[in-house]
Amino acid sequence: MDMDNLYNQTYMKQACEQLQETIECDFVGLAFQESKGPNIGWKFASGNSNDKYERITLRYGKGIAGRVLSTGRPMEIKYFPQNILGKALEYPILLAEKLIYAYALPILINGIPKGVLLVGFRSETCISDDEKKLVEKAANDLIKFLTMEKL
Description:
The protein is α+β, with helices and mostly antiparallel strands. Helices cover 36% and strands 25% of the residues.
């Protein structure tokens, strides 16, 4: 995945903005595993309140992005920082954006988790099952784009 390609950057940013508008959430972020090594970084966002997301780097298995990547399964956090696995500091994107609710899905490239799509709210708002399907569709559209981009 060539994240430095301007066309790719524009597509990813627009995908985040479109999803934020569709679901009317406060934040949408896209994280990807670094091309070299196991670290994960937040590369694109919409609705961000600052640019801290750009400097967040996680180890595989840590934070919401690391856990989604390591399990390959969606993760939902309600009422952050209550009832979380581990410490609040292990969820830097939620802290940086003051998110109380987050839903994150893996971006699978050839069946292997390589990225994470996250939607979040700065209130106790949760998304419905129908809205989760819209997030899944957005993730699938990103997968199609990234898979085509590699050909």
